[in-house]
Structure formats: C-alpha cells, structure tokens
Amino acid sequence: MDKITFLNPEFFWLLLLIPIAILWLFWKKNQQSATLKMSSLSGFKGTESFLTKLKPILNVFRILALCSIIVAMARPRTVDVSNRTKTTKGIDIVMAIDVSGSMLAKDLKPNRMEALKQVAADFVEERPNDRIGLVVYASEAYTKTPVTSDKPIILEAIKGIKYDNVLQDGTGIGMGLATAVNRLKDSKAKSKVIILLTDGVNNAGFIEPETAANIAKQYGIRVYTIGLGSNGMAMSPYAISPQGKLMFQMMKVEIDEQLMKSIAMKTDGKYFRATSNSKLAEIYASINKLETTEIEELKFYDYDEKFRPLIWLAGFLLLAELGLRNTVFRSFI
After folding, report:
1. Segment among 50-59, 226-235, 266-275 with least mean pLDDT
2. Quick one: three-class SS letters along the chain?
3. Which end of the chain is more exposed for a tag (fewer CB within 10 A), N or C?
4. Is 285 exposed, middle or buried (0-12, 13-18, 19+ CB in 10 A)?
5. Which of 105-109, 128-132, 299-303, 318-322 has the highest mean pLDDT?
C-alpha cells in the first residue's frame, strides 16, 4: 500500500479549533433554548421524541465536515517514485585473455583459467553500465564476444572459455592486444580500456606486442596488463598422453614482466602481478575503481491527489445537515 504524505501539513494546526467549535455549538444551543419556570416536570417525563434525541447529529455532521475540509487543505496524496539511471560517460572495455595450455597450471585453484573466469565474471557484473567485449588468444587470437552491453552474453562467453585445439598453443601477446585494439578503435566511448592478461612470454604470432601497444596509444586506448602465475615453480601441463590426457610436472613460472610493464606505461595503464586467487580478485577490484563511469540518476515522481474525496464528503455532510435542519428537524429548532 502506498504511503500517504501531506503537501501542506501546517493546516493540521486548524484541528485545534475543533474543541472550540464544539464548545461554541453547545453554548449557542443553550442560548437559543427558551427558559420556562415550572413547579414540577413530572408530567413531561418520557415525552421526549426519538427525533429530539437525534437532533445533536446535525452538529456532528458540521464538525465532521469541518475536519474533512481541514484534512483536504493539508493536501493528502500518495507518491510513486521510480528511479532511472542514465550513463552520461560510458566506458568500453575489452578483456584479452590468454588461453594457452599453461593457463591450466595449478598454482591458482583449481587452475589459472578457472580462477580467472570467476574473477572476470564478477568484474562484468560490477560494470552494469559499460559495454564489454572478450578476446581470447594463444598463438593466434579471435573475438569471442564483440563489445556489447548485453551482460548475459558476456557472462556466458566467459563461462565457455576453455583450452582446446582451436588455437595453436603458444603465447601471442601482440596478436591478442592487436585484436582487442581492433574491437575498440572505432568506439565513441569516453574511455576505452583493454585488460590484457597472460601467464607467459611472447613466443608466437606475427604482430609484435610493442607494435600493438603503439597502435593502442594512437587510438587513445589505455591498457591494464596482468601477469598471472605464482613466483617460482608451478604444476603445469607439458605434454598430452597417448590417451589424450594432459600430463603435469613442476615447471618454472616465466612471465615477461618487463614487456607487460612497458605496454602499460606506453598506454597510460598499469601493470599488476597476480600470484594467487585473492590477489587476482584484488587486481580486478582495483581496475574497477580506477575506471569509473559517470552515471546520472533520474527520479520520477507520480503524485495521486487524495483531497477530492474529502471535499466531496464535507459537501455531502453539510448538505445533509442543511437538508435535515430544514426538513425533518425543522419543528425542533
């Protein structure tokens, strides 16, 4: 049920006049009553008619009408408030994610790829007013989802990220970055951002990472780079068994941090190193705070005035009081 509010509540002070009005009506009634001195009233006992007993209802009608008018003057109404948000300065973001075999290393739980998918999904859900796209790369790269505001599509695409043989194994950082730049170069957004994640060194592809970084800078695209992997050794896949299963062994974690820092610096971005699940989540939270979207909140008020029924009630009571006074109770006034 909608809450009733009053536009002019100061008129409720007039209700203090109601007791005065009641006292005045009683005083007026006594003043209008004739006085006749008699030695005894015993002969008149039980002669008062039913209409005579109902006569005070006329004053009740008048008082109720006055109360209705006062409440109507306070302007009772209900209000329905609807909030709408408008993105005044949006951000277009492309996440370029390494899906090479090393992303199945188990230094993050359950592995790097699954840990990233969970954090990336949380990041998307916290950016409801921005457009986001998804690029995956190994030795080659392709766009898994173009830049879109349809969050369920993006979340489904993230959920479907996996290591397979569609892309040749290897790490083409330049390929992933260049593909992401291509998705953003024609964007009209206030801010264009790429989140470039890798867990290795550039060893594949025909586009150099430095070249892709220069193109990103030319189009005003800021690149946040993330190196994913613990310090030291990690249980990583190194071969496929005859039965088609991945074989794991302890291997050294190698990330070209100098390259990642260079790309971030050249594009006015920032480099992060994620060595654990919690650190990865902190990094995405930091990027979320660094890239803020300007939102304008609009509130719409729909008022439903409730004073009219009170005016009709007051009018009815006054007409009823006047009609009864001049008809049914005329001979008793």
Report:
1. 50-59
2. CCCEEECCHHHHHHHHHHHHHHHHHHHHHHHHCCCCCCCCCHHHCCCCCHHHHHCCHHHHHHHHHHHHHHHHHCCEEEEEEEEEEEEEECEEEEEEEECCHHHHCCCCCCCHHHHHHHHHHHHHHCCCCCEEEEEEECCCEEEEEEEECCHHHHHHHHHCCCCCCCCCCCCCHHHHHHHHHHHHCCCCCCEEEEEEEECCCCCCCCCCHHHHHHHHHHCCEEEEEEEECCCCEEEEEEEECCCCCEEEEEEECCCCHHHHHHHHHHCCCEEEEECCHHHHHHHHHHHHHHCCCEEEEEEEEEEEECHHHHHHHHHHHHHHHHHHHCCCCHHHC
3. N
4. middle
5. 105-109
* Per-residue pLDDT at 122 exceeds 50: yes
Whether omega before 309 lies within 30 degrees of 0, making that bond cis, reads no
**CA-based nearest residue to 266, from 205, 219, 298:** 219
Residues 124/125/126/127 CA torsion (nearest 10 deg):
50
Q: Which of 208, 223, 201, 265 is nearest to 135 (CA)?
A: 223
CA–CA gap between residue 268 and residue 182 (Å, rounded): 18
pLDDT at 243: 83
**Residue 84: its pLDDT value, please?**
65
User: How many degrees, rounded to 5, is the angle at CA 72 between CA 68 and CA 73?
Assistant: 120
In the block, tokens 């660094």 appear at 290
Percent of residues, the chain, with pLDDT higher than 70:
85
The amino acid sitting at 115 is A
Report the pLDDT value the prediction gives residue 320, as an integer from 0 to 100. Answer: 86
Q: Which two tokens stand for residue 270?
A: 């920032």
